[in-house]
């Protein structure tokens, strides 16, 4: 049934949040790749970080949708004219799907804008969670996490003009440390979840991780576009087969706490991607990776690279030593810095509170 969002929001505060992620094996979550690499068992590992993107809903101008998000100029349009090719277009697309006229959307992220941690997809999952909860409170059917993920992916791919992966939405919805196995399905991306952290005590994994923002926003479309074009042209397919093998090796090593094996698999995957597309790392990113390798750690850019974040894994003592070295390298660029490496195991959270 139609939802009167403004009326509900005048008496309720609705806020949703979801975590971003670090990853290995991204791009294999794009159908262009996993539909044709089924023999290699394509998979992606991601770790949800407790760097949350929050979405708050409030009543706005009748018939309009308004979006404010740090790092972007606030924008407002009549819902029927909201542009999906706008920098905030994915938020407008989600609002249009739910017919959320008269709603003001505020997005606040704990991660840097355009940092290759899946931020826009995370915001979309949070916004869907918030709008869906309003509908459920008014009698509409609730969505499962899987349905939320698939809707968020479908909306993003519909407006992005390029093939999109689904790992960002999965990390946002489910949280945790997971290996996602990709399968072929006519109705959309099909996946199975293999949790890798079930045997870890709370806080046990974090000392083995390091996360850094390299101070330059990323543009994943350019790098992913090159990979997709070359794959379609029949080039570099053996490299992607090897990347798939690296993901399996990394997942098993991480699950069983074999840190040296995890380091080897990560560094092999990073080297393959750098050979295919050197632009995934700039000079500062290359220095961070080299410092990690020299100290017995693994290092990889997040997402498709080309700016944004990097992360490292290794023995706790080696990671502790690497942290100081990375801080010195990051000090060369004003915006660059280490980020907290706390993991999130909750995924999407939605809060609804009655107000006066």
Nutshell version of this structure?
By secondary structure, this protein is α+β, with helices and mostly antiparallel strands.
Provide structural commentary.
This protein has 356 residues and is of the alpha+beta class. It folds into two domains: 5-196 and 344-354, Ribosomal Protein S5, domain 2 (2-Layer Sandwich), CATH 3.30.230.10; 206-339, Alpha-Beta Plaits (2-Layer Sandwich). It has helices at residues 5-9, 31-34, 89-97, 119-137, 145-160, 167-174, 220-232, 237-255, 259-276, 283-294, 316-330; strands at residues 12-24, 43-59, 64-69, 75-78, 103-109, 177-183, 190-195, 209-213, 298-301, 309-313, 337-339, 349-354. The strands form two sheets. Strands 1, 2, 3, 4, 5, 6, 7 and 12 form an eight-stranded mixed β-sheet that branches. Strands 9-10-8-11 form a four-stranded antiparallel β-sheet. The longest helix is centred in the middle third of the chain and has 19 residues, at 119-137. It starts with a helix and ends with a strand. The mean pLDDT is 95.
Number of domains: 2
Radius of gyration equals 20 Å
On the 0 to 100 scale, the average pLDDT is 95
Helix content: 25-40%
Measure the end-to-end span: 26 Å
What is the β-strand count?
12
Second-tier CATH architecture of the largest domain: 2-Layer Sandwich
Characterize the largest beta sheet: strand count, sense, and whether it forms a barrel: 8 strands, mixed
The stretches of 5 or more residues where confidence is low (pLDDT under 50) are none
Portion in beta strands: 15-25%
Structural class: alpha+beta
> In the CATH hierarchy, what is the class of the largest domain?
Alpha Beta
Shape: globular
Listing every helix as H and every strand as E from the N terminus to the C terminus, the arrangement reads: HEHEEEHEHHHEEEHHHHEEHEE
Helix segment count? 11
* The CATH topology of the largest domain: Ribosomal Protein S5, domain 2
């Amino acid at each position: 049934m139609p939802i009167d969002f403004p009326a509900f929001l005048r008496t309720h505060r609705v806020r949703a949040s979801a975590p971003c992620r670090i990853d290995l094996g991204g791009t294999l979550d794009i159908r262009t790749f996993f539909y044709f690499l089924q023999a290699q068992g394509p998979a992606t590992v991601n770790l949800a970080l407790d760097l949350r993107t929050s979405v708050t809903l409030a009543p706005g101008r009748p018939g309009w949708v308004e979006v404010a998000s740090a790092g972007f100029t606030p924008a407002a349009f009549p819902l029927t004219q909201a542009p999906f090719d706008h920098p905030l277009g994915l938020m407008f697309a989600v609002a249009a799907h739910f017919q959320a006229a008269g709603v003001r959307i505020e997005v606040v992220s704990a991660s840097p804008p355009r940092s290759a941690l899946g931020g826009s997809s995370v915001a979309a999952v949070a916004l869907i969670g918030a709008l869906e909860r309003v509908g459920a409170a008014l009698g509409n059917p609730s969505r499962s996490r899987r349905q939320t993920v698939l809707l968020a992916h479908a909306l993003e791919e519909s407006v992005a003009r390029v093939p999109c992966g689904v790992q960002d939405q999965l990390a946002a919805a489910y949280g945790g440390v997971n290996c996602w196995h990709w399968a072929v399905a006519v109705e959309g991306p099909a996946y199975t979840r293999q949790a890798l952290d079930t045997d870890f005590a709370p806080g046990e994994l974090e000392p083995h991780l390091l996360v850094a923002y390299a101070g330059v926003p990323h543009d994943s479309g350019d790098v992913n576009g090159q990979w997709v074009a070359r794959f379609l042209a029949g080039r570099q397919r053996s490299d992607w087969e090897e990347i798939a093998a690296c993901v399996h090796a990394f997942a098993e090593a991480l699950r069983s706490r074999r840190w040296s094996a995890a380091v080897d698999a990560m560094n092999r995957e990073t080297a393959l991607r750098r050979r295919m597309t050197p632009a995934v790392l700039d000079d500062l990113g290359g220095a961070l990776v080299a410092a990690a390798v020299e100290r017995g750690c693994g290092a990889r850019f997040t997402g498709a690279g080309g700016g944004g974040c990097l992360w490292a894994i290794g023995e706790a003592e080696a990671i502790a030593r690497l942290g100081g070295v990375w801080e010195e390298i990051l000090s060369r660029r004003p915006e660059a810095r280490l980020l907290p490496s706390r993991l999130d195991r909750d995924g999407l959270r939605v809060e609804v509170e009655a107000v006066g």
